[in-house]
Design goal:
With 206 residues, the chain is of the alpha/beta class. The chain has one domain (17-205): Rossmann fold. Helices cover 40% and strands 18% of the residues. It contains 7 helices and 7 strands, in the order H-H-E-H-E-H-E-H-E-H-E-E-E-H. The chain has helices at residues 4-14, 17-24, 35-46, 79-90, 108-112, 125-138, 186-205, and strands at residues 27-31, 51-56, 95-100, 117-120, 143-147, 160-165, 168-172. Strands 3-2-1-4-5-7-6 form a 7-stranded mixed sheet, with helices on both faces. A hairpin with a 2-residue loop joins strand 6 and strand 7. The protein is globular and about 45 Å long.
Length: 206
């Protein structure tokens, strides 16, 4: 078993102690654990983020495997539980909080109250709009990093990070959407997830 000190020493070899200390003390909430959220969570775990709060209601399905971080052995498991297992395999000393619940008008404010950094990673436009509108209205102090537009196999360089408002960032091309014959594929989804994870790290360190 790798000890916490061994992992921290390894991190120190990649970052300065000051940088790693900031990452380790940071907390990030991720809403939606599909193609974006599952990859974002693992990227942040590998980067040394100290606390992750994971929110999703769904179970892993075989159709998720083409773009989401899960494996065949996870099929049927709650995404919150499966992703926590994967994070523990990367770093068992990260604090992982899981909430297995669907975001609704009744619970959206309470679920994200007090979160400093929130990644929106829903694939359903209705839930995406519900979360974004609620945070902007009721939690203006929360920094929201959202994903929009990463379907298909188009130009990777069209996926960008843009600051829309003071505490609101959108990652993606903001255009491409999944439809019959043009679904979500791992490369562009992962690129967008990388943009979101990197924006989170920039916010923590800058």
């Amino acid at each position: 078993m790798v000890t916490q000190q061994q992992l921290e020493d390894a991190m120190d070899q990649r970052f300065s102690k000051e940088v790693y200390k900031k990452l380790k003390s940071a907390r990030v909430c991720i809403a939606g654990l599909g193609g974006l959220g599952s990859n974002i969570a693992l990227m942040l775990a590998r980067s040394g983020i100290g606390t992750l709060k994971l929110i999703d209601f769904d179970r892993v399905d075989i159709t998720n495997l083409n773009r989401q971080a899960y494996r065949i052995s996870h099929i049927g498991k709650l995404k919150t539980e499966a992703l926590k297992e994967m994070i523990e395999e990367v770093n068992p000393y990260i604090q992982v909080e899981t909430v297995t619940a669907k975001v609704t008008e009744e619970n959206v404010t309470e679920l994200f109250k007090g979160e400093k950094i929130l990644c929106e990673a829903f694939d359903n436009p209705e839930y995406k709009a519900l979360l974004v509108n609620s945070v902007l209205e009721h939690s203006p102090e929360t920094i929201l990093v959202s994903g929009s537009g990463m379907a298909g196999y188009g130009n990777s360089n069209l996926i960008q990070t843009k600051r829309k408002m003071n505490n609101f960032y959108v990652c993606g091309d903001e255009i491409s959407d999944a439809y019959a014959g043009m679904g979500l594929l791992s490369p562009r989804v992962s690129i967008c997830a990388g943009h979101q994870a990197n924006m989170v790290i920039r916010l923590i360190l800058e």
